[in-house]
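name: query_chain
kind: protein
chains: 1
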Amino acid sequence: MAVAKRIKIAFLEDDLAFAETIQEWMHEADFDVNHFGTGVDFLRNFPNSQYDLCIFDWTLPDMEGPDVMASLKLRSNKLPPIIFFTGRGEEDDIVRVIESGADDYIVKPASRQLFMARINALLRRSMSESKNESIYEFGALKIDTKQRFVILEGEEVKLTDKELDLALYFIRNEGVLLSRAHLMHVVWGSSSEVETRKVDVHVSHLRTKLKLIPEFGWKLTSIYQQGYRLERNE
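structure:
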């Protein structure tokens, strides 16, 4: 007789007292829970485990929950459902949670009954959803996130893993000004401000390799003392 697989949950929360309470609820529901206190710690360990659900606090000591989620999207073609804890219940704050790409949210403090109902509903929903698409096309660019290769005007372009991650993030955030610190969080999973020179070097490589210049329909612009923005040059 086969043994039922236990639900495995990643829990990212820096408030240790609150985290202990939530973990107790989930353990009593027979969930297998791994707790992380920082975004960098979670990202460092995520590739080593397969989770059925992620629960993130919105505000962390080293990076914001949405930055962690964005970094995960670069590292994995199919993510588990993600639910956010937020300490704010105003409409604008809830809109931010949903627009970040979260599957659901819970406003702190939450009752045990509400928390478990949201978790179980999201797990049921995720089991019935189809697999995510792995092919992205942006004009002359075609990116296969599963096989991790890039085609430009019919020719394969050789990118490093980080160059590919950075290219994907720029394209998925077309028209958005992205700071160097934000890109370090998402692409490198680092909160270091000392290493932001890495971003400049990789951006320079992408401009050349993917022809992200006006003559080919794109503008990857450096915004002084702020960051970079990728736009279509129409």
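note: The chain has two domains: 8-128, 135-232.
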